[in-house]
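Researcher: Next sequence.
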Amino acid sequence: MISMRAKKRFGQNFLHDRRMIDKIVSAIRPKTSDVVVEIGPGQGAMTQPLLTAGGVVHAIEIDDDLIYVLQQTIRDAGFILHHADALTFDFSQIASRFRLVGNLPYNISTPLLFHLMKYTARIVDITVMLQREVVDRIVAEPNSKIYGRLSVMLQYYCAVDRLFLIPPGVFDPVPKVESALLRLVPKTSRPLTGEEEILLEACVKLAFAQRRKTIKNNLKGLLQENDWLNLPIDPQSRAENLSVQNFISLTQYLTQNRMIQ
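Model: Next structure:
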């Protein structure tokens, strides 16, 4: 097997522990009918077990050297390699329905997850390795200091579940942080329209811009004193106290009252 050193600029940490690989693949439960998209296949540690399950695997890799490694070591009719940046990749070109897996680079995980939410209509599920801190933020509930924009937006689009922790020692090089396996299952129906979802994201971003301020202060450019009488939200609450449903109600109110064009 061809091997290479990880590159810091791509946030590379290669998974090498066979027992952990088997555990992750078991959690994914690949089937012969699956179309799987793997982001950051590295040297193919998880790619081959996924192919062994019998499905088609599309791998998205940005690193020229890893492209060469994968081309030389994985020769399977079901393997399709895309030399691309996952942050800008058009996932709609893959298939009408696909499953997404991967070891997401920690330095781009948040913008990448937001990018993937554009394709929830096509995604069956997402099972990815992330920094534990990021996973904890994603699954956090209201009234928590780590509950924030990432929590609200991903929980709006998906059912979220932290599956298990992944110790640093299963990677090479060994990262300084603990990882966790996250599963996201896109919701089959959502209460807001596409335009309203854009407004939701803007409101959530504004609400959490200054966490110590009340929601009334953070949204004073959008809502007047009387508006709060018509909303099921305490204006003295902070953004971290609001549920996903609260933010949905807020967005619907703004839309119905045409307070944002």
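Model: The mean pLDDT is 91. Residues 62 and 84 are 5 Å apart (CA to CA).
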